[in-house]
Structure formats: C-alpha cells, structure tokens
Amino acid sequence: MCGIVGFNGHVQAAPILLDGLSKLEYRGYDSAGVAVRNGKNDVEIVKAKGRLKALYEKTNDGLAMAGDCGIGHTRWATHGEPSETNAHPHCSDDRNVTIVHNGIIENYLELKEMLEKAGYSFHSQTDTEVAAKLIDYYVKKYQKGPIDALSRFMLRVRGSYAIAVLFAECPDEIYAIRKDNPMVIGVKDGNTYMASDVAALLRYTRDIYYIGDNEMACMGKGEVTFYNIDQEVIEKDVTEVKWDVNAAEKNGFEHFMIKEIHEQPRAVKDTLNSVVKDGKIDFTALGLDEDHIRNFRQIYIVACGSAYHVGVAAQYVLEDMAEIPVRVEIASEFRYRHLLIPENSLVIIVSQSGETADSLAALRIAKEHGAETLAIVNVVGSTIAREADHVFYTLAGPEISVATTKAYSAQLIASYLLAIEFAKVREKITDEQYAGYLEELQTVPGKIEKILDDKERIQWFAAKYANAQDVFFLGRGIDYAVSLEGSLKLKEISYIHSEAYAAGELKHGTISLIEKGTLVISVLTQPDLYEKMISNMVEVKSRGGYLMGLTTYGNYGIEDTADFTAYIPKTDIHFTPSLAVVPLQLLGYYVSVAKGLDVDKPRNLAKSVTVE
Ligand code: F6R
Fold it and tell me: Where is the Glutamine amidotransferase type-2 domain (predicted)?
C-alpha cells in the first residue's frame, strides 16, 4: 500500500527520498511524489503518475531539487483515480502546510464541508488534501505551533493515518503523526530518516524508533522528539533491527518472489530453531506457560488472505493433535460479527506485516471481549506485535514480493509448534509422539530443498498452461487448505481466474463449469482421503478436464488418472502443507513469468493492506 519517506540532514534530500521510495515500491503504488525544503524558501513539490522511474526522470534522479529536508510518497489510490493531481504531497494553497499520508480519513467529507465554509477550496479528490488543509486551519486559527495543531487534528479526525508534515514556519523540521498505520524514525550521524516501513531505512541505519498510536514526532537534523496527544514530551527506546540489508535485494534472482521461494528452507529452519531447544519447545519468549495453555477452552484464528489460509491448515492440526476446538475466521468478517467469545479463549492473529487493518481491528476487538491474544507476526515492532498479549515472531526476514511465500511457510511452522506444545501440555500425545513430531519437523527444510531441485518440471508445465482461462484446485482436509493457497498464488500474479474447492463440494454446483481442457489441480497428500480424491478426479476427467495431481512419492497409481503429476517427499500428515504448497507457488510464479507479468508487483495489489 502507500509508502512514506522523510529525510532531514546535511546532504541533498531528494536522492535519499527517491532511494527510500524505491525500497517501498514492492508495497504497490500507482503514483509518487516528493516535497523538498531549501532553507526558508517555499516547499518545492514534484509528482508523477505511474512508476517511480517517471519521478526520477522529472527530478534528474533528485539532483534537480535543492534542499536537505523533505518528504516523499508512493500512492496506492483509495480516494480518487491514480493521477498527478491526486498524488501526494498535498498542501494548503499557500504552501503553509505540506503533507504525505498513508491510510484513510473516514470523516473527510464532513471536514471538507467545514473547511469550504471557512474559505478553503479543493483541487483533488483525496482525503489527504482535506487533512493538509485541516492542519493548516488549526495552525492559523490557534497560532500555537505545529504540535498543538497536530494534536487538534488527531482529536478531530476519524480513521487511520501515518502523516509526515512540513510547516512553512519550521524550515528545519519534519513532523509526523500516526494512528493504526506504521511509521518509524532512524537517527544516524546528524541525519534523521523517516519511513512507513523499515526496509526504506536499512541502508542508512538499523537503530529505529517506533512512533506509537496517537503519538507525534518532531524530526530535527540528527535528533527527534516524541510527544503524546496531550502534547507532553515522551521518551522512547531505540530498537535495533537485525534484518540483513541483503535480504531486501534480489541477489541474482530474477524476481523477489523466486528468491523468497528459495529462502523457505532457511525461514522454516530459523523459525523452528527460535523456539526448539534441546529437543523441546520453549515458549518462554512468548510468555505462554503450561498453565496458560491448559486453561484455554477455545481457539480462534483470525487473519486475511494467505495468513487466513495458514489458519485453515492450523485448524486441522490443532484440532487433530491437541483436541481443542478451533474456529478460523477472516478478519474483515470477524470484526463486524456479533461475537460470542467464550471465557478462556485464545485468539491467534496471523499476519506477516503486523499492520493489516482488519487483522489489527480483530485483535483489538478480541481484547475488548476479554480473550487472550497471540500474534504470529513477521515484522518486529509492528502494531499487531506490540498490542498482542503474546507474540510468536516468524523469522522469515523481510518479504518484498507482494505474493507471500516464505512468510506463509514460516507461519505454518509456528502453527505446528503451537499444536505440538498444546497437545503435549494437554496430554493428548505421548512423549514419543512429541519427540517424533519435532524430529520430523527438522526434516522439512531439506524436503523443501528437494522439491526446489525439481522445479524445471513445474516450469515446463506452467509454460504449457499459461493461457488457461479458468483453473480449479481441489483438496480434502488439510489439502483443501493448501488448495486455497495454491489458487490464490496463481490468480494474484498470473491474473488467471482460479478457485479452490473442498473436493466433495464439486458435485454441488461447480462441476458444471468443467469442460474439455479445463485445468483441475488436485492435491492429495492424505492417505485416508486418497481414494475419495481419486474418485473426484475421475469425475472431472470424465467431463473432459485436464488433471494435474499433487501427491507424495510412492502414490504412482495416480498416473492412471492424472495427466501430469508433481510429487513431494513424504512427511507426517500434519506437515504436508509445508511441502505441497511449494510446487503450487512455483506454478503461480512460472505462469506469471511465462505471461510476462510484473511478478513482484501484481496490478491492484499492495503488500501490506493498512486500510479496510
Ligand atoms: C497473498 C498475500 C495476502 C496477505 C494478506 C495478509 O499472497 O500476501 O493475501 O497474506 O494481505 O497480510 P498480512 O499477513 O501482512 O496480514
């Protein structure tokens, strides 16, 4: 989604702003802009529709803009079409206030009306222009300076935002405010950097301050002061970000997505080893002790997109191993439902970014209902991680490709570990089973490597089916969870219509869509459901469908039915999603490449969905 950068220091700002924006490109955007101050001169604003390249060209790589203090933005349109007029920065007509904004101001129409009555006029369709003019209104009306105006603004608006502001009266300062949208600040060698995502700062500093909800910051050159909404100065600790800078580079791979697919063995191993010590799971860092675990009577898993698919798989594993009831819910539904959360419930929020608006809202609602909350999150210090009662960090490292792969895999591992520990504490498995599960999990990274070694077969198949119009994925039990993810991977980056069905559902309507040549991908890793899956495949075949099977080595009889088969190594039945998903990720990737599409930045999508 939108990205923000800011720089205030002793060198030219615009090239640094552009570099920061280039690190945020992966989040998805349709226009970009920068605003730079050169001492007391007026703010200079340059914007461009489309790719960042256009902004680089317009500013001669930033060199054409003088000044050492500025803000920049990549916009993903919410209010108003992608255009130069709607692109950020936005400013008051006299350039007294210039802002960039991530998020949505929900009551902007009402505020716009109020401002129009006060004599303001508007040129764009955005809520951001309203925000800029409202801040300007408060500065002029109360004459008490930026912090006063910003706190009045925060009390007046509804919605979510991270905003960076340049005030004409403060040429050497940048101000920032945030609510429900991330914003971080780094200080190094007399320079101060700001961004909505740590990835944009890593090149300059690893020492980061997180601005909290309803807090403000004033960035000077090489210094920063934080305020709460009551305008009191607050102290903050620096957090050291341990992510490897190279992790945000392609390192010789053609796309981030294929690089991240190859990083899965490492992501799985690191996540596993972060809590498994001497053959035992240690959740001390999560603050989850045995009494806690014993007490829970119900688990909810709440998330969006692929993270929700992790929840669907985790439900099978937790219920089967730990015999505890689990409900999996889409966060945007959970948050608006009449919730009947029983006592002693644990609500698990799964999120790579830790900033997804619906997942964050679900977390807060769960807490309001008295549930204990656990976040499975990848981004350290993200809002969901900070607000949950317990955090299980996945160690996937920065994920740049919009389509998630390694974070999904790391989330699966986190959910298996929870299931194993819950099962042990609740005495549903023996010590031998416990040891056996952990031993088997250690083999998963190697087995993923093995699948990756055979990727050319999938590449060949993908090239053959790149022109498919509709694709169906079928699975039963935990294989259905994998089908959901395989289908999403394909459609989001290849723009091929695809759907996943619980195989038994096919006959209840969808089978009428199968015609000669329709590609149907069946996932069948569960021995108990194998025969039933084969029957479903035969039904499809007899209607002309073209069948791809995805099963474990040894099930060679499938070749009597399937037209093409991908095999994965055998593992414990609960852990098969970690292996079965890999050929499906590869399929989505290679189809997208064969179609010549923008694999890492698919149209209309954003990496972190911070608005509803
Ligand atoms: C799909 C994908 C999305 C995310 C979803 C949740 O490849 O990446 O479906 O899984 O937007 O995002 P997080 O995990 O950041 O909450």
Answer: 2-222
